[in-house]
Write a structure and sequence with these properties.
The structure is a single chain. The chain is of the alpha+beta class. About 20% of the residues lie in helices and about 35% in strands. It has two helices and seven strands. Strands 1-2-3-6-4 form a five-stranded mixed beta barrel. Strand 2 and strand 3 form a beta hairpin. The radius of gyration is 14 Å and the shape is globular.
């Protein structure tokens, strides 16, 4: 595993997959993580095509992550401060499964992109 940059890193267990780029993890309590550098199509949308792609990404994430022990990393800024990482009640961070960054895995599968409009 590539050493994560400075920030908060801990072991966690995946408890729920919200969609292809958002998961709930159990540390000592549940915390929602928005995967960094990963943009999956939305599952809650009126756009039927986007919803179908979003459900495919969500199903892939569920198959790979549900009930797995993972490493969660929430990055800090260059000064080592964890701030501005929360969006919509979730932390922006990385999930490592068996030493691999899950953002990179789901992007490689073609189910998400590294940038929002990618």
């Amino acid at each position: 595993m590539k050493e994560p940059r400075q920030g908060f890193t801990t072991k966690a267990k995946i408890t729920r997959v919200i969609d292809g780029d958002t998961v709930d993890v159990l540390i000592e309590r549940r915390m929602r993580i928005r995967l960094e550098d990963c943009w999956a199509p939305e599952t809650r949308t009126r756009d039927k095509e986007e919803k179908a792609r979003g459900l495919k990404a969500k199903n892939f994430a569920e198959d790979k992550l549900m009930n797995q022990e993972v490493i969660v990393h929430i990055p800090a800024d260059p000064e080592g401060e964890i701030k501005d990482v929360f969006t919509f009640g979730r932390a922006v961070g990385r999930v490592f499964l068996d030493g691999e960054d899950f953002s990179a895995i789901i992007v490689k599968e073609g189910l998400a992109t590294e940038t929002k409009n990618g």
